[in-house]
Amino acid sequence: MKRILYSLLTSILLVLAGVAGYGYFLLDEHLPGTPAVDANTGGQVARGAYLARAGNCMGCHTMRGGDAYAGGRVIQSEFGNFLTPNITADVNYGIGAWSAEDFWQALHNGKSKDGRMLYPAFPFANYSQITRTDSDALFAYFKTVKPVARENQPHDLRFPYNQRILLAFWRALYFRPGVYQNNTQQTTEWNRGAYLVNGLAHCSACHSSRNVLGANGGSHDLSGGALPMVNWYAPSLLAQDEAGVLHWQPAQLQALLKTGVSQHSVASGPMAEVVAGSLQYLTATDIAAMGTYLQALPVSKTAAADMLDKALKAPELGKEQMAMLMQQGASLYKTHCADCHGANGSGVASIYPALASNRAVQMQNATNPLRIILAGGFAPATEANPRPYGMPPFGPVLSDAEVAIVLSYVRNAWGNQASVITAAEVNRYRTAPLD
Ligand code: HEC
Ligand code: HEC
Ligand code: HEC
């Protein structure tokens, strides 16, 4: 009996690991701006403001149309909704009465002022890597944030996930607090990149698999992860057929991170939010350091992709059927897509992404191109690219079969090669929320 109970609890906790589940921020939001400041100059407060950008604290702790950092933003997860707390300097409702030590305990150790264990929807497993000096700078900055008297609301989580006590198990299984340790075999730049990517910038909160029962719960290996609540897939940063950047020109990678567009790719959806709310404010030096680290990541194929690959594998088509599909696809493409993406899929550099030789289009997991075709998309608005060109939604215009055909075409035209998409697959995304 005890064993059954234990394994039940364990499964619940493994699922809870997925509570690291990430929210998705709508693109039309304009959050209050903070001027970019250099990481290493200026006083402690300015440094803290910069670090808050690197951690994208505002993105989660500000609700639509609300005051900066006053919380109330809903973060959806499979377990219910999290409502982010007020972290302004308000003494009653925010963290105005906190000490630097309380703040450190939250970031480094995932515990609130009163000792409550915090949910990993707050990416403290990443923030734990922050140095005490950086935590103190962040704290100094948050002391200066305009106090807002907005009371926190409780999270709206299903049983048993609403039992905070269960987090003790999650922590025992997955969480080891620890400040980033310099790797002496590597350059200062690589170490700076590793510190940012794995710590403040919490790339692994999305780019790692979290929700496979048992396996990989709590992993931070950047091997790709689904964001099921928002129908996006954060591709593997290790796999060269997904978002690995081993062979990129450093300048192109830096452009993607800093401006959301590069010559060959664009940031969309949640990634566009990351660029708009955080990365665009980082200094060229820090962006370059992140790029150096990303380009040195070990190369591998992703378990997540393999898994989804099997789930999504479309039926094999015969030669004749394939030719017919390509013919119909070409005609739909010409009518609806060629004006922007070019007759031969070559796009217009930094405006309309090329679809030929585009990895995002050919990934086994077709979630992202599918939802972009159905719901449209925007690259992030950044200082460097204030008015990004948009992709109109075709969900209202094309039938499931037409979307399946045109995407299958795009995945197999101009030298592209990827599995065919079925109408049923399109329908799954049409009926799921696409916000
Ligand atoms: C991905 C969304 C997300 C990001 C990014 C994020 N937070 Fe949070 N944060 C949360 C959530 C959700 C909670 C509530 C956790 C809970 O109730 O257990 C939280 C809780 C906190 C708390 C504890 C508040 C309390 O009253 O106990 C502090 C302090 C905090 N965050 C500071 C920060 C700082 C500083 C940053 C940026 C470095 C940041 N957060 C970035 C989602 C986020
Ligand atoms: C909120 C979730 C989230 C976070 C946090 C996040 N990403 Fe992403 N990322 C995504 C999604 C979803 C995609 C796929 C959509 C796209 O291609 O833009 C993506 C795509 C990418 C791509 C491929 C872009 C392309 O078109 O080739 C790179 C590279 C990338 N992310 C790097 C990073 C890095 C580095 C960080 C940390 C600084 C990061 N991401 C943080 C969700 C996220
Ligand atoms: C009005 C111009 C326009 C038209 C018409 C258009 N697109 Fe797009 N498309 C864009 C833009 C701009 C983006 C970048 C959006 C973003 O960053 O989220 C894009 C992105 C995409 C992507 C994602 C590429 C990537 O690298 O992530 C796919 C796939 C795509 N379009 C396919 C199509 C298909 C198929 C059609 C026709 C049914 C079409 N587009 C019609 C402008 C257009």
TrEMBL record:
What Gene Ontology molecular function terms does this protein carry? electron transfer activity; heme binding; iron ion binding; oxidoreductase activity, acting on CH-OH group of donors
Kindly give the SUPFAM superfamilies that the UniProt entry links to this protein.
Cytochrome c (SSF46626)
Record keywords: Heme, Iron, Metal-binding
The residues that hold heme c 3 are C337, C340, H341
Keyword set includes Transit peptide: no
Q: Which Pfam families match?
A: Cytochrom_C
Q: Where does heme c 1 bind?
A: C57, C60, H61
Domain named Cytochrome c: which ranges?
43-146, 188-298, 324-414
Cellular component per GO? membrane
Per its Swiss-Prot or TrEMBL entry, what cofactor is needed? heme c
- UniProt cofactor note: Binds 3 heme c groups covalently per subunit.
Q: Where does heme c 2 bind?
A: C203, C206, H207
Which PANTHER family does the entry link to?
Answer: BLL4482 PROTEIN, BLL4482 PROTEIN-RELATED
What is this protein's name? C-type cytochrome
